């Protein structure tokens, strides 16, 4: 018995890129999900493969949504991984793997995706992610990368780090596809920690630009890029009304600039003028407060 089925006839794709964004792991601000949605929309994505959700999804932990309308149970919405295909306006083919990260049978799922990637001749895999960081919204979003291949990383202009962390399914897929000779990379956007619980379109734009850097696949996403500009202006307006928040952002800017000037240099513990609090101390005192103010500020203006 197979763990997947084709929803439509298999298309003929030319050197497609496999783009992965599975929910359930780190995605600060929902930036990776928003980037994937922009790709799906611009590429007119079509459902291609569905997976056996009873095999891969624990519905006690990830319960389906019951739709109730005036007391009537009108249906259940079952979250399940899905593979789509699409084509950019300039003719580049994509495979899009999205939906919830499997709760079980990761080895089997990895083998299945590897088989599908080979069947359709995928030439590269890219996974989207985003994580909170003490970065200022007033600077360009930093993009970092992970890959099983040092050669792949050396060819990219992104940051790299050394750390032991729990892995997501996308990381497992990187390993599987790398083992099959398909170059694979995870592209991660840093999201200012004080906006990590709300939309931050600048990070989504950075991920799309990262996709272009890795693969040459360009996604215009004009609406998302316009939202990033508007969102930045509104954050600037809010911060300008509070001296403490301005100080916090200024400290983060100095940390950011120091890291950009020399990525190997130690991060200064007190980049501020004499008498000002340390960045870490100010972050603890102001980060949550600023986040709350931003949520209220954007909500009052009808912005999520």
Protein described:
- By secondary structure, this protein is of the alpha/beta class.
- The protein has 2 domains: about 5-220, Rossmann fold (3-Layer(aba) Sandwich), CATH 3.40.50; about 230-300, no CATH class.
- Helix content is about 40%, strand content about 20%.
- The chain is built from 9 helices and 10 strands.
- It has helices spanning about 30-40, 55, 105-120, 150-155, 170-180, 200-215, 220-240, 245-260, 280-300; strands at about 5, 15-25, 45-50, 65-70, 70-75, 80-85, 95-100, 125-135, 145, 185-190.
- The strands form 2 sheets. Strands 1-3-6-7-2-8-10-9 form an 8-stranded mixed beta sheet, sandwiched between helices.
- Helix 1 (about 30-40) packs across helix 6 (about 200-215), helix 3 packs across helix 5 (about 170-180) and helix 7 packs across helix 9 (about 280-300).
- About 40% of the residues are buried.
- Residues about 265-285 have low confidence and may be disordered.
Number of helices in the DSSP assignment: 9
For the record, what CATH class of the largest domain applies? Alpha Beta
Broad shape:
globular
Q: How are helices and strands ordered from N to C?
A: EEHEHEEEEHEEHHEHHHH
Q: Please count the beta strands (DSSP E, at least 2 residues each).
A: 10
**Average pLDDT taken over every residue:** 87
Count of distinct structural domains: 2
Strand content: 15-25%
The share of residues in helices is 25-40%
Radius of gyration: 21 Å
The CATH architecture category of the largest domain equals 3-Layer(aba) Sandwich
């Amino acid at each position: 018995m197979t763990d997947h089925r084709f929803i439509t006839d298999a298309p003929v794709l030319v050197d497609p890129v496999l783009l992965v964004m599975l929910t359930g792991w780190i995605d600060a601000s929902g930036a990776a999900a928003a980037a994937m949605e922009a790709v799906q929309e611009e590429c007119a994505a079509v459902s291609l493969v569905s997976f056996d959700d009873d095999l891969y999804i624990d519905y006690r932990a990830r319960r389906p949504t019951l739709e109730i309308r005036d007391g009537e149970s009108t249906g259940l919405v079952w979250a399940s991984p899905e593979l789509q295909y699409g084509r950019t306006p300039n003719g580049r083919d994509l495979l899009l793997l999205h939906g919830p990260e499997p709760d079980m049978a990761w080895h089997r799922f990895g083998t299945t995706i590897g088989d599908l990637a080979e069947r359709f001749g995928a030439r590269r895999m890219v996974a989207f992610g985003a994580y909170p960081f003490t970065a200022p919204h007033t600077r360009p979003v930093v993009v970092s990368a992970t890959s099983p291949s040092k050669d792949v990383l050396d060819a990219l202009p992104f940051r790299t780090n050394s750390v032991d962390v729990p892995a997501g399914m996308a990381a497992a897929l990187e390993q599987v596809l790398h083992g099959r000779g398909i170059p694979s990379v995870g592209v991660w956007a840093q999201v200012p920690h004080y906006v990590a619980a709300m939309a931050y379109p600048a990070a989504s734009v950075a991920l799309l630009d990262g996709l272009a850097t890795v693969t040459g696949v360009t996604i215009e996403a004009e609406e998302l890029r316009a939202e990033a500009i508007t969102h930045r202006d509104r954050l600037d307006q809010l911060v300008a009304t509070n001296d403490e928040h301005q100080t916090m952002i200024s400290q983060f800017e100095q940390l950011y600039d120091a890291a950009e000037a020399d990525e190997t240099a130690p991060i200064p513990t007190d980049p501020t003028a004499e008498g000002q609090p340390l960045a870490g101390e100010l972050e603890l005192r102001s980060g949550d407060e600023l986040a709350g103010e931003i949520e209220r500020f954007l909500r009052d203006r009808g912005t999520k």
